[in-house]
Amino acid sequence: MTAVDERRMTELFENLEVPEGVKVELLRGNIVMMAGPDVVHNDIVEAVHDQFPRKNWRRLHTQDLALHEESSEPQPDLVLVERGTGPDSGRMMPPEVIKMVVEVVSKTSVDHDYGVKRSIYAAARLPIYLIIDPIVAHCVLLTDPTGTGDGADYRSQWIYKFGETVRLQPLGVDLDTTEFGTLPNVRPHRRP
Predict the structure, then answer these.
(1) Average pLDDT over residues 22-38
(2) Would you give the DSSP letter of residue 90?
(3) pLDDT of residue 22
(4) What radius of gyration do the chain's Cα atoms show?
(5) Which of UniProt's keywords are assigned here (predicted)?
(6) Is 132 a domain residue?
(7) Is position 23 within any domain?
(8) How far does Cα 40 stand from its chain's mean position?
């Protein structure tokens, strides 16, 4: 895609009228629409949110990220930024202040969360990407981003089953996953 095409797509994306109950993201120049989240999804996001003390962390839900070199404006389910850093207003959060992004997988987001977003977040040098998957009842912790563009990835990957503690040592938090629910009647996949 040329720079002109990317600018047009970004402009179109920013002016798009989205129906209620639909989530829209710009991922590498593609506009991606998804159904609104399930209650299981929202309960998981809330459980993660509650484990990060407000006095230390800004726990931002569905915050747009400014990843323009990737032609992307993803909207993770949860963004963690140290309190006192980042802009005080505006729609976009710059990657250099983000400590962790969290995506909770839905039946329509498996490929995006495990594939393109993994690459986008690594290319943006986001230090921690946590995928919480209520389809297969596990969390995938990704750290140590490397590479650029489509070839970017995380060097380190740990998988924790629901019920196990996810060790987030750089953030000073051991994440309790015992409250995480699962999505009923959804066909399992083979990711990560």
Answers:
(1) 85
(2) S
(3) 78
(4) 16
(5) Endonuclease, Hydrolase, Nuclease
(6) yes
(7) no
(8) 16
Count of CA atoms in the C-beta half-sphere (13 A) of 76? 32
What is each CA distance from 30 to 10, 17, 74, in whole angstroms?
9, 16, 11
CA-based nearest residue to 175, from 43, 37, 49: 49
Determine the pLDDT at residue 13. 62
Are 71 and 10 in contact, with CB atoms under 8 Å apart? Answer: yes
Tens digits of per-residue pLDDT, 109-150? 999 999 999 999 999 999 999 999 999 999 999 999 999 999
CB atoms within 10 A of CB 112: 20
Distance (Å, rounded) from C-alpha 135 to C-alpha 73? 25
Phi-psi region of 108 (alpha: psi -120 to 50; beta: other; left: phi over 0): alpha
Is 11 inside a domain boundary?
no
CATH number at residue 57: 3.90.1570.10
Q: Which domain holds residue 53?
A: 37-176
Domain count, the chain: 1
Report which residue type is found at 64. D
Relative to beta strand 138-146, strand 128-133 is: antiparallel
The answer to whether position 47 is within a domain reads yes
